[in-house]
Design a protein that fits this description.
Layout: E1 4-5, E2 14-17, E3 40-41, E4 51-56, E5 62-63, E6 65-69, E7 79-87, E8 94-100, E9 108-111, E10 117-118, E11 122-130, E12 136-137, E13 139-144
Antiparallel strand pairs: 1-13, 2-4, 3-12, 4-11, 5-10, 6-9, 6-13, 7-8, 7-11
Bound molecules: calcium ion.
Length: about 210
């Protein structure tokens, strides 16, 4: 089966967690930036556990595999005990799996049974145990059996606008007084649809009164 990555491109999810700060420079967005070398890490001075991390999706038909890529070296924050939840739009969270992962730097793979997580609006990780009571993730990668199709909330009308468009109007005639400088520079040259011709007032002047 062909697999389609639904994170981070296309269908890039939003992400949030408990209102607990990340370590500056290791914000949550670093775990879905497509770069295995960058990562999210909780604040170095706070106990981050339990940590809840939500990923939001739009237009994803299913998720049948998830890869948790921990930090490449060191172990602080490596997720050990994780509950995986998911919900559909406006639906309740339903537990998908309880996960127990080794305290190492290897990628952890979750194969979701059956049709996977069906039409998810949100996938939630509740981390109840992590090394050093920190929380870290270098990349969370989601896979689907079908490509993401972003739904269209509304489409611009493609018909019926012609009657609303401005219409070009053309004057039938024009006159000027005093007379133009010459017939070749007459006021009719402003109506001839030719940008290279011009009207010019009389070179003799007399067009404006002086006070
Ligand atoms: Ca990353």
């Amino acid at each position: 089966m062909q697999q389609h990555c639904v994170c981070p491109i296309p269908g890039r999810p939003y992400l949030r967690s408990l209102p607990r700060p990340a370590q500056p420079g290791a914000e949550l967005s670093k775990c879905y930036d497509g770069d295995l070398a960058t990562g999210y890490h909780s604040d170095w001075n706070l106990n981050a556990i339990p940590d809840t991390v939500d990923f939001y999706f739009n237009g994803v038909n299913n998720i049948n595999k998830i890869e948790y890529v921990p930090r490449s070296s060191g172990l602080n924050g490596v997720w050990r005990t994780v509950a995986l939840w998911a919900r559909k739009t406006n639906g309740p969270f339903v537990k998908v799996a309880d996960l127990n992962w080794a305290n190492d730097n290897t990628t952890k793979i979750v194969n979701v049974a059956a049709n996977g997580i069906d039409t998810p609006a949100c996938v939630r990780f509740v981390v109840s145990q992590a090394t050093g009571n920190f929380s870290s993730c270098n990349e969370m990668i989601f896979w689907s059996s079908t490509p993401t199709v972003i739904p269209v909330d509304c489409s611009n009308p493609t018909s019926g606008l012609a009657s609303l468009l401005d219409k070009k109007l053309t004057a039938n005639n024009a006159s000027v007084s005093p007379a133009a400088n010459s017939a070749g520079e007459g006021i009719d040259k402003t109506l001839d649809n030719d940008k290279s011709t011009l009207y010019h007032s009389s070179w003799a002047g007399g067009g404006f009164r002086s006070r």
